[in-house]
């Protein structure tokens, strides 16, 4: 099962249960006092998803690996390309 299929399955499951509770089709009976909080459940999930996504991005940026060897190799290749272009008549400022 792909990740997309897993997310769609979870979303469909959540929405079907949430709609069943809202339409009073489930054995869970909701009072008028609690209906406001049930309406806010999707908003809370979106907010939690956003916060978790932001934390994952911050963590991955903070633990990003530097590739010093690759940087040295790239600098060497750039210098070699500049020398080749200078031999062919290209002038750098």
UniProtKB/TrEMBL annotation:
The chain crosses the membrane at residues 35-59. Its main location: endoplasmic reticulum. Pathway: Protein modification; protein glycosylation. One of its GO terms (cellular component) is dolichol-phosphate-mannose synthase complex. It comes from the Eukaryota. The keyword Oxidoreductase does not apply. Keywords: Endoplasmic reticulum, Glycosyltransferase, Membrane, Transferase, Transmembrane, Transmembrane helix. It is found in: Endoplasmic reticulum membrane. The keyword Transcription regulation does not apply. Pfam families: DPM3. Stabilizer subunit of the dolichol-phosphate mannose (DPM) synthase complex; tethers catalytic subunit to the ER. Belongs to the DPM3 family. Component of the dolichol-phosphate mannose (DPM) synthase complex. PANTHER family: DOLICHOL-PHOSPHATE MANNOSYLTRANSFERASE SUBUNIT 3. This is Dolichol-phosphate mannosyltransferase subunit 3. It comes from Brachionus plicatilis (Marine rotifer).
